[in-house]
Amino acid sequence: MGARERRNNLLGWLFITPPIVIFGIFIFAPMGVALFVSLHKWNLLSSMKFVGLKNYVRMFHSESFWNSLRVSLIYVLGTVPTSVIFAMILAILMNQKIYGLSFFRIMIYLPVITSMAAAAIVFQYLFEPEFGFVNFVLSSIGLPKMKWLNDPNQALFALIIVGIWKRVGYNTIILLAGLQAIPSVYYEAAKIDGANNSQVVRKITIPLLSPVTFFVTIMQIIASLKVFTSIVVMTEGGPAGGTEAIPYYLYKNAFQYHKMGYASAVAYVLFAIIFIFTLLQFKFGEKKVHYQ
Amino acid sequence: MLLSRRNKRHRVYILIIEIILLVFVVLINLPFFWMISASFKMKNEVLAYPPRVFPSKINFDGYKYIWTLVPFARYFFNSVVVSVSIAVSKIILSSIAAFAFAKIPFKGKNTIFYIFLGTMMIPFEVIVIPDYIIVNAFGWLDTYWALIVPFTVGAFSIFLLRQFFLGIPTDLDDAAEIDGAGKLRYLFSIIYPLSKPALLTVGLYAFLASWNSFLWPLIVTNKDEMRVIQIGLKALQDSWMIEWNALTAASTVATVPIIILFFFVQKHFLEGISITGLKA
Q1: Which residue of A has its CA nearest to B135?
Q2: With an 8 Å Cβ cutoff, is B53 touching chain A?
Q3: Distance from CA of B254 to the nearest CA of A (A)
Q4: B153 vs A19, A131, A222: nearest CB
Q5: Of B161, B128, B31, residue with least CA distance to A263
Q6: Which of A229, A240, A243, B203 maximizes the CB count within 10 A of its CB?
Q7: ipTM, 2 decimals?
Q8: B157-195, pLDDT tens digit by residue?
Q9: What is the residue-wise DSSP string for A106-154?
Q10: pTM (2 decimals)?
Q11: Residues within 8 A of A (CB atoms), B 213-242 only
C-alpha cells in the first residue's frame, strides 16, 4: 500500500507541476512584486528608489486619481443596473414557451464573443457626430444631434452603452439558466392557488432567482470596474479625462509616463476594490450543488 | 368554446413575446450589420449623410486597403499562432492537472486546488505591470513567448475539466486498476477519448479569450510584425491615412471568423456557460 501511495503522490504532484510553475511565476509572484514596486519610485531604466507609502499618499491627494474613481463609479452605476434589469426581462421572456429559443440565445450572445476592439471601432463610427447612424436616428425623431465622443460626459455615456451592449447576452444566458432551474412545482402550486402572471413573477420567480441575480450583478460590477479596451479604442481617456476609468489611468501611468511605482500602487487599490466584490460574492452568494 | 378562446389568447401572448425578442435581436446586431455594410462601401460613400443602408455597389477598396497599409496578413497570422498555441497548451496541461485532481489521490490535493481557484479571483489588470517587468527581464518582449507562455494553463480550464472528469464513474477507475493499467495509460486510452467534447470546449474558450485579448498584447508587443490582430486594429486606427471603410473591413476580418466558429460550436459553448454560471 505504501508504494502505491507514494507513486500516487509523485504522479499527482508531477501532473500539477506545470500549473504551479506558471501560476507561481505569472500570478503569485507578481502579487508580491506589485506590492514591492508600489513602495518604490521606478521608471524601468534607472534604479528603484524606496519611498515607502509615498505613492499611496500621492494617490489620495491626486486630482486625476479621484477623477478616475469618479469615472469608474459612474460607469459602474450606468452599466450594472441597466444591464442586469435588461437581462432579467429578456431571460423571463425567453423562458416562455417560444419557438426558436436556440436562435435567440445565439443571436444575443454574438456581441459577447466578438472582440471589443473591433466593436469599439464600429461604435466609434456609429457615434460619429457628423454622419453617424446614431445621430441620424436622433435627428429623424426630432432630437438634437449629440456630440458623443467629442464631449467628456457624452463620451462616458457612449461607453456605457457599449459596455451594456457587450455583456447583456452573457447576463441573459446565465439568468435564463437560473430560471430554467426553478422547479416547475412552484409554478404549478401557484397556479392552483390562483396566482396571476404578475404575482408569479414577483413572488416566485424573482425571489427564487435571487442567488443567480446576485451572481450576475457582482460579475457585472467586476467587469465594469475592469473596463479598458473600449476606452483605448474609442476615447483614449478623453476628452479632458472624462472617460479615464481606473484601469486606463493605471495603464497611462505605467506604460506612458513610466511611473511604475505609482501605477503599481494604483493597481493595488484597484485590486482592493475588486476584491471586496469578489468576497461579497463568496460570502453571500448561495451555492447550490446538484447531485445526480 | 372557452378553451379555444384561452388558447387563442395564449397564442397572441407568445406572438407578442416573439416579436419583442426579434426586435431586440435585430437591434443588438445592428452594429455588425453596419460594420459589414460599411466595409463594402467606397471611401466617400461611407461618410454619406443620411447614412445609406446598403452600399450602392459592392466595393472591395476597404479590404484591399488594409492589406497594403499595414501588414494585416501578418497580424492575422500572429493571432492564429498565439491563439492556437494557447488553446492546445491549455487542453493538454489543464487536462493533466484536472485528471490528477479528479482521479489521483495525493496529499495536499484539495488545498492546492483551492489555491488554483484563487488565481481566478485576481484580476489581470492588477498583475499586468509585474508581468510586464518579469517578461521584460526574460527578454521576451516582442516575441511569441511573451504572448503565449503566461497563458499556457488556466485555472478555469482546470476547473471545467476536473468537473467533467469527476463525472466519470469511479467504477471505470477501479476496472482500469484491476486490469493493471497505470494512471497514465488510463488517462490516455480511456479518459481522453471519453472527454472529447469537454476538451474541445476548453480549447474553444481558450482560443476565444486569446483571440480577443487586448491589454496584454498591447503592452508586450511594439514591433509591427509581432502585433496580433486586435492591436493591428488599433494600429490601423492610428495610421494617418485611414478611412472608415478600411477600418470596418479590418473589424470584419477580426470578427467574422470567430462568429462562424461560434455558430459551429454554440451548443456546447452556451451549455458550458450556463453550467459554470450556476455552479459558481
Answers
A1: A26
A2: no
A3: 7
A4: A19
A5: B128
A6: A243
A7: 0.88
A8: 999 999 999 988 888 888 887 887 788 888 888 888 888
A9: HHHHHHHHS-HHHHHHHHHHHT-TTT-HHHHHHHHTTPPPP-GGGSHHH
A10: 0.90
A11: 214-215, 218-219, 229-231, 233-234, 237
